[in-house]
């Protein structure tokens, strides 16, 4: 799977400034093998899975318990979608209520 992701990324010629690009950069410098890249990818996924799901579950609980925040957040997302035509990571990070919700739940972001 990792080898296929590497081939696809290299064939497309795009740079996405993500973890895969970081690993490809290490491979190009001969510092890491494809097998090591796969191991890092699996570790990265597994290590982040539980903590991310816990933070998201807690955030959804807090939003569900606070109707005012829920309404403001929903309206902001709908307004952003109407202005931009669709939602993407880049458009959602501009939402002040969404960012405030994440920062409130996960104070380690600051």
From TrEMBL:
Belongs to the cytochrome P450 family. It is found in: Endoplasmic reticulum membrane; Microsome membrane. Pfam families: p450. InterPro entries: Cyt_P450, Cyt_P450_sf, Insect_CytP450_Detox. The lineage of its organism: Eukaryota, Metazoa, Ecdysozoa, Arthropoda, Hexapoda. This is Probable cytochrome P450 28a5. May be involved in the metabolism of insect hormones and in the breakdown of synthetic insecticides. The keyword Oxidoreductase applies. It is a peripheral membrane protein. Keywords: Endoplasmic reticulum, Heme, Iron, Membrane, Metal-binding, Microsome, Monooxygenase, Oxidoreductase. Its main location: endoplasmic reticulum. PANTHER family: CYTOCHROME P450, CYTOCHROME P450 28A5-RELATED. Its cofactor is heme. It comes from the Eukaryota. Gene3D superfamilies: Cytochrome P450. One of its GO terms (molecular function) is heme binding. One of its GO terms (cellular component) is endoplasmic reticulum membrane.
């Amino acid at each position: 799977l990792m080898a296929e992701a590497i081939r696809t990324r290299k064939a497309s010629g795009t740079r996405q400034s993500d973890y895969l690009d970081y690993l490809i950069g290490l491979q190009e410098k001969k510092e890491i093998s494809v097998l090591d890249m796969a191991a890092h990818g699996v570790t990265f996924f597994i290590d982040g899975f539980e903590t991310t799901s816990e933070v998201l579950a807690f955030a959804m609980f807090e939003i569900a318990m606070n109707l005012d925040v829920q309404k403001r957040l929903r309206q902001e997302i709908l307004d952003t979608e109407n202005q931009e035509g669709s939602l993407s990571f880049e458009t959602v990070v501009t939402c002040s209520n969404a960012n405030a919700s994440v920062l409130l739940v996960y104070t380690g972001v600051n």
